[in-house]
Amino acid sequence: MTKLKRVHSRKHCVKRRIFIHSLWFFALLYPIMKYMGYAVPRKPVFVKITTPMPQAGFLLTSGFILFDKDDKCWALSRKCTHLGCKIHYSETRKILECPCHQSQFDHVTGKVIKGPAERSLTQLPVEKRLNSPYYVVTT
Length: 139
Ligand code: FES
What we know:
This protein has 2 domains: 1-41; 46-138, 3-layer Sandwich (Rieske Iron-sulfur Protein), CATH 2.102.10. Helix content is 24%, strand content 29%. The chain is of the alpha+beta class. Bound molecules: FE2/S2 (inorganic) cluster. Residues 80, 82-83, 85, 98, 100-101, 103, 116-117 line the site of FE2/S2 (inorganic) cluster. FE2/S2 (inorganic) cluster binds at residues 80, 82-83, 85, 98, 100-101, 103, 116-117.
């Protein structure tokens, strides 16, 4: 083997070694970042509500509950902050309640009234419009 081929072969071997070490680095980095709570931010989803608001002043969807009362509109996520069950709205008691462990949340602010949940419900930005779609909720 000529000297030139040996040098070329050694360079190729070093590049491959660096590549393999990089793979190991990223393979170990991902679970560590996940453990530390890092998540890749997801793109916002715009949900268009094409029906006018019912007389009751609230609209339940699968992912959120939309309120439009007294010239003010807001949306709260229906995902319970305890273990993720789907929240229901009690119109008579004006609270959001989780059927799994009975956490209760304020229907305006989403703050916890009664545990075991400790964190408030996620508030979602709402854009109210005059024509269809009447509301655009960013989830
Ligand atoms: S999942 Fe909602 S209170 Fe436990």
